[in-house]
């Protein structure tokens, strides 16, 4: 059982320069606490993502941490030239000493993609071509590819990642239809959904893994992420969590509301109590949070919990308190039980 951190880097209440510095101080705390990996989302033209260039922020993360792994979840390949993305990936893996975990995707928001002048209906074929280019670059010294969206003719590939042939791969998965591809390529999985959805995916992954002859000890990471706020008293934790979740949800939905289009069916809600009931938010004292995490680990069949510890209006000090209590009083007990 591993613990990681997922970060949207949505807009906080302080100046942006201070938010970056506070987050990097949290990175140091995550590293000390023994988290497996720091995963950073990529979003554009929205307060949901104040780190629209993951490579820039992750290069700072690589310098402020020693053991913890790091990576984008996901790198939006449909928005950029795949050779440019490849070079960033190789630099990050080299600069971090081979600690990069590589999440790849086409982007969850058609609105954000549209702001870049890209037809959202073209995002999937663009992503598929970019992914093919990326995989070729990892294994070849020259790049030749003739597609509808990208074309390369004997382009030299002068840089390679430290991890060969490439860093470990990650996918955000919401449908069982994506599982066979992930199993065939030994790709780590993460889901943001409610417990029933996560369980259906982890069961399917294990089933496909066994059918493919995979050993249980070699099973890739099957994870989900949850908002977590921990304090010495339940009242204190609730006082912090409710407005922070409301601010985060406002950031999550802003572009969709501006455009007047319905949100994708992700299960998140503006009703805090309903979000807790659905398992998206875990809040309370260390004992309460430990019990809720144990219940979800068993119900969802995961071997990896990605903790969203800094979001919305949460002050740095509150996030740091959650990190310290989680590391000291909860993570060791859950690992032991698992």
Features:
single chain, 338 residues, alpha/beta, TIM Barrel, 10-stranded parallel β-sheet, two-stranded antiparallel ribbon, 11 helices, 12 strands, globular
What's the helix and strand layout?
Elements: E1 2-7, H1 16-33, E2 37-40, H2 54-64, E3 69-72, E4 75-76, H3 82-95, E5 102-105, H4 110-115, H5 123-139, E6 142-146, E7 151-156, E8 169-172, H6 179-184, E9 188-191, H7 195-211, E10 222-230, H8 234-259, H9 272-277, E11 281-284, H10 286-300, E12 304-308, H11 316-337
Parallel strand pairs: 1-2, 1-12, 2-3, 4-5, 5-8, 8-9, 9-10, 10-11, 10-12
Antiparallel strand pairs: 6-7
Tell me the β content: 15-25%
- Domain module count: 1
Query: Could you report the average pLDDT, rounded to the nearest whole number?
Result: 96
Q: Ranges with pLDDT <50 over ≥5 residues?
A: none
CATH homologous superfamily caption: Luciferase-like domain
Question: Structural class, from helix and strand content?
Answer: alpha/beta
* Order of helical and strand elements: EHEHEEHEHHEEEHEHEHHEHEH
Approximate shape: globular
User: In CATH terms, what is the architecture?
Assistant: Alpha-Beta Barrel
Provide the CATH top-level class.
Alpha Beta
What profile does the largest beta sheet have? Answer: 10 strands, parallel
Q: How far apart are the first and last residues' alpha carbons, in Å?
A: 6 Å
Tell me the radius of gyration. Answer: 20 Å
What count of helical segments does DSSP give?
Answer: 11
Question: Into which percent range does the helicity of residues fall?
Answer: 40-55%
């Amino acid at each position: 059982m591993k613990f990681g951190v997922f970060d949207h880097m949505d807009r906080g209440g302080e100046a942006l320069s201070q938010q970056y510095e506070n987050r990097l101080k949290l990175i140091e705390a995550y590293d000390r606490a023994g988290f497996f990996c720091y995963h950073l989302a990529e979003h554009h033209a929205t307060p949901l993502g104040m780190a629209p260039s993951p490579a820039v922020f992750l290069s700072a993360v690589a310098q402020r941490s020693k053991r913890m792994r790091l990576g984008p979840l996901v790198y939006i390949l449909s928005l950029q030239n795949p050779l440019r993305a490849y070079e960033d990936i190789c630099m990050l893996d080299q600069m971090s000493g081979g600690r990069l975990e590589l999440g790849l995707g086409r982007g969850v928001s058609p609105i954000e993609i549209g702001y870049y002048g890209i037809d959202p209906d073209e995002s999937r074929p663009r992503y598929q071509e970019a992914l093919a280019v990326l995989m070729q670059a990892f294994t070849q010294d020259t790049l030749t590819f003739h597609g509808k969206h990208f074309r390369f003719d004997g382009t030299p590939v002068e840089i390679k990642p430290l991890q060969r042939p490439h860093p470990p791969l990650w996918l955000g998965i919401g449908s069982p239809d994506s599982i066979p591809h992930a199993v065939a390529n030994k790709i780590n999985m993460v889901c943001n959904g409610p417990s029933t959805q996560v369980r259906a995916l982890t069961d399917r992954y294990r089933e496909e893994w066994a059918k493919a002859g995979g050993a249980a000890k070699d099973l890739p990471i099957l994870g989900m992420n949850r908002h977590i706020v921990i304090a010495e008293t339940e009242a204190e934790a609730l006082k912090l969590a409710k407005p922070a979740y409301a601010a985060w949800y406002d950031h999550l939905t802003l572009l969709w509301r501006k455009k007047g289009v319905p949100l994708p069916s992700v299960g998140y809600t503006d009703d805090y109590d309903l979000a807790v009931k659905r398992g998206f938010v875990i809040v309370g004292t260390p004992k309460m949070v430990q019990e809720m995490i144990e219940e979800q680990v068993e119900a969802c069949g995961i071997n990896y919990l990605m903790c969203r510890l800094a979001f919305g209006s949460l002050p740095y000090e509150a996030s740091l308190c959650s990190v310290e209590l989680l590391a000291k009083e909860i993570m060791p007990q859950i690992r032991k039980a698992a």
